[in-house]
Design a protein that fits this description.
The complex is a heterodimer. Chain A is about 95% helix and about 0% strand. The N and C termini of chain A lie far apart (about 205 Å). Chain B is built from 10 helices and 7 strands. In chain B, a hairpin with a 2-residue loop joins β1 and β2. The chains are: A mainly alpha, B mainly alpha. At the A-B interface, α1 and α2 of A face β7, α4, α5, α6 and α7 of B.
């Protein structure tokens, strides 16, 4: 019956040693280990949750980013179109202005040319009159240089006037 | 594995050398039978039995308790650790080395009873109050010291290192999964509220059983004692669980035992059944662990002894049976490693379930 009769000495030592070791380990052993490991587990759990949140946020940011890129592209296209339009417009404006200016300059030049022409013609006419008067004077002086010529001329003139008078009456 | 081989080797050495009364080689005695337990003769290698191989004696020497620790033998030289005897007999306290009681010697009116293998008073044959450091007690001290050192070293690692920045190394990496396994088991079975209070006890019980189970499988000196296969040890463990359960029981738990919500005619019967069931729980815990570990030891030792039993049947039988027995021994040792863990786990799990039941609140 040795095996199934608990031995008093072993019972005594077992209670004593087990109790002592349990006291020591329950105080300085297990709670430290389990609390630290639980702390780590909590941190890991929290980190995983955070990572998931961040991932979600990231995916949101990616779509946001894509959206913004799309918007920027649209904006760019719009600006480009506008720029093209305004360039065209400016060019058009410039062309119109230039044409007007040119027209004005041409008109002005034409007017001035006409004026110049007029005054030149006038000058020429006056010169011609003066010249013809001089020439006529010279001719007359030549023809009427003698007394007899002068007399003859006078007579002819008188005749002429007399004839004219006869004819009138 | 190592155990089988080493025991075979040791026994072979003993068998080869001139056996001065060593109880090896000879008739086959059926192992494990209860009658053999009672007939067991104390200190081995002392009485000459001719050519009889007393297998039962070999086995019970290995699984039983003793006042000395027989470590090894070379021929007729024995390496034996004589442990201190501490007894309180009718003549007061006696403390001396067990070497003085060897071979049935009487010292200070005390001797070892050859029938029981225990110290008795020489004249009256009465058992004194005996708290000697026996083989099992020494093994208990060493395993507890080992447990203490291992767990405190683990705790020290956690105190010295930032657990959020480093993963455990060395002993901490080894112990953490075991401790956390029991801790989480406590959380599952006892409940989120107060599992922290009971987790240290469950960890302690689990590691104590596990360490001693594995030390029991190791065949040479620091191990080899059959501590968890000793009913006193398992009884103390079960009683610790019993008191933990019943001292921390809630009102609801005691109401379920003494005033259960059952039909009138069952009212007087139920408390009897419930009390009986509460008392049987530690008994079942005790027997389960004790019987499992003891059976494992006996099986391995029997298989190894087959080699020596076969010695007298000639070389062919010896050779073939040796191969078979070594293969079986390897298998059984692997099985024992599994059982060592499973029994520690089962004891702890049942303890946590009992505690959890006692901690139930009113629904």
């Amino acid at each position: 019956m040795n095996l199934i009769t608990p031995d008093s000495g072993l019972l005594f030592w077992m209670v004593l040693i087990f109790g002592l070791v349990f006291f020591l380990l329950a105080r300085y052993g297990f709670p430290i280990i389990t609390s630290m490991v639980e702390k780590r587990n909590d941190t890991i759990e929290k980190s995983l949750k955070d990572a998931k949140e961040i991932e979600e946020k990231m995916s949101g940011m990616v779509t946001e980013h894509a959206r913004m890129l799309e918007e920027a592209r649209k904006e760019q296209a719009k600006l480009l179109r506008e720029a093209t339009d305004s360039r065209k417009q400016i060019l058009e404006q410039a062309r119109t202005d230039a044409r007007e200016e040119a027209d004005r300059i041409v008109t002005e030049a034409r007017e001035r040319i006409a004026d110049e022409k007029e005054s030149a013609l006038r000058d020429i006419r006056r010169e011609a009159a003066i010249l013809s008067v001089g020439v006529a004077e010279k001719i007359l002086r030549e023809e009427l240089s003698t007394e007899a010529a002068q007399q003859a001329y006078l007579e002819r003139l008188v005749d002429e006037v007399a004839r004219e008078n006869e004819q009138v009456s | 594995m190592i155990r089988t081989l080493l025991i075979s080797l040791l026994m072979l050495l003993q068998a080869l050398s001139v056996p001065e009364g060593d109880s090896l080689s000879g008739t086959f005695v059926r192992t494990g039978a209860q009658s053999d337990v009672e007939e067991r003769e104390s200190p081995s290698g002392t009485e000459a039995e001719g050519n009889d191989l007393n297998v039962a004696e070999i086995i019970f020497e290995h699984i039983g308790d003793a006042y000395e620790w027989h470590i090894a033998s070379w021929g007729d030289r024995h390496l034996v650790l004589h442990l201190p005897v501490i007894v309180h007999s009718s003549t007061g306290w006696h403390v001396f080395s067990s070497k003085l009681l060897e071979h049935g010697a009487v010292y200070e009116g005390l001797k070892i009873d050859p029938e029981k293998g225990k110290i008795v008073e020489a004249d009256s044959g009465k058992r004194p109050f005996d708290i000697s450091i026996t083989k099992n007690v020494l093994s208990l001290m060493m395993s507890c010291l080992l447990l203490l050192v291992v767990v405190l070293c683990t705790a020290r690692w956690y105190r010295k290192h930032d657990v959020l920045k480093e993963s455990p190394t060395g002993i901490a990496a080894l112990m953490e999964p075991l401790i956390m396994m029991v801790h989480n088991m406590a959380r599952e079975n006892i409940g989120e509220e107060d599992y922290r209070k009971f987790s240290p006890y469950l960890c302690m019980a689990f590691l104590f059983i596990l360490f001693n189970n594995f030390l029991g499988i190791i065949p040479f000196f620091p191990g080899g004692a059959n501590l968890t296969g000793n009913i006193a040890v398992t009884m103390v463990l079960a009683l610790f669980t019993f008191f933990t359960v019943n001292l921390f029981g809630t009102k609801h738990y005691y109401k379920e035992i003494f005033l259960p919500d059952v039909p009138g005619f069952l009212k007087p019967v139920m408390p009897v059944i419930e009390v009986f069931s509460a008392l049987m729980k530690p008994v079942s815990l005790t027997i389960r662990l004790f019987a499992n570990m003891l059976a494992g030891h006996i099986m391995i030792l029997s298989i190894v002894c087959v080699i020596f039993i076969m010695a007298k049947y000639g070389a062919v039988m010896l050779g073939s049976m040796s191969v078979i027995s070594v293969l079986f021994g390897v298998f059984l040792d692997a099985l024992e490693c599994l059982v060592a863990f499973i029994q520690a786990y089962v004891f702890t799990m049942l303890s946590s379930i009992y505690i959890g039941l006692a901690r139930q609140k009113e629904d």
